[in-house]
């Protein structure tokens, strides 16, 4: 089965971010295909490289980066949502004259069209949100 | 490219959280993909379509006029759940008029808003290939 997953909530703020990660892990372990994981609303905060959660807690942002490296996952951060919340790759940082970029490894920033195209391509669309 | 039936479900009030505004941005972008699109409003989401919104007093931009553009984007199926309106003391007359031009009928302006029962909406959701909820 080909899935696209949409993550609409931020890490640590909302269980939806954890559940999405757990679902994607489980689906990949079962041999399913993940067309894309699309991060929207506060979900874009899952893609920051600057989080330093307590060591005895789960490491959500790093877990996504590791999963992406293991499975060649396409982790897409919505550009418009990212601009509102201060998530930037090198290109965005240059374009908007920001002091730094903070996009975590394995993520890329792109438009909402990537969500719609993924929904068209996938057999199932799953939304993890409030 | 195969055409899929997309439904966008709006369940949150227009201000207070960003869900409504960012949901509308998805609907507008998605329109360029020429898929079949429906938009549904239920729970506090019905407040998004209220006439006469004045959120400037709380420092928010009034984006409600953007809903009127949906007709130009070929979004002609806007479903509003009756039970959600009734529970909030609202009726159809409280909502903004949203219309589209019907090219099959001499470009007459027709209402895009359809009031539906919870039961009917359940069946509509089941008919769609892709359901995105906000």
Short key terms for the protein model shown above:
heterodimer; A: 130 residues; 38% helix; 20% strand; B: 134 residues; alpha/beta; 5-stranded parallel beta sheet; 3 helices; globular
Characterization of this structure:
The complex is a heterodimer of chains A (130) and B (134). Chain A is α/β, with parallel strands linked by helices. Chain A has five helices and five strands. In chain A, helix 1 runs parallel beside helix 2. Chain A starts with a strand and ends with a strand. Chain B has 134 residues and is α/β, with parallel strands linked by helices. In chain B, strands 6-3-2-1-7 form a five-stranded parallel β-sheet. In chain B, strands 4-5 form a two-stranded antiparallel ribbon. The longest helix of chain B has 12 residues. Chains A and B meet through helix 3 and helix 5 of A and helix 1 and strand 7 of B.
Major interchain interface with per-chain residue totals = A-B, 19 and 19 residues
Count of extended strands of chain B: 7
Over all CA atoms, what is the radius of gyration of chain B?
A: 14 Å
Main structural class of chain A:
alpha/beta
- The 3D shape of chain A can be described as globular
Percent of sequence in beta strands of chain B:
15-25%
Distance between the termini of chain A: 25 Å
Note the run of SSEs of chain B as H and E: EHEEHEEEHE
| Number of extended strands of chain A | 5
Strand order of the largest sheet of chain A: 4-3-2-1-5
- Overall pLDDT score of chain A: 97
Spell the H/E element sequence of chain A: EHEHEHHEHE
Number of helices of chain A: 5
Structural class of chain B: alpha/beta
Radius of gyration of chain A: 14 Å
Please state how the strands of the largest beta sheet of chain B are arranged side by side.
6-3-2-1-7
Please describe the biggest sheet of chain A, giving its number of strands, its sense, and whether it closes into a barrel: 5 strands, parallel
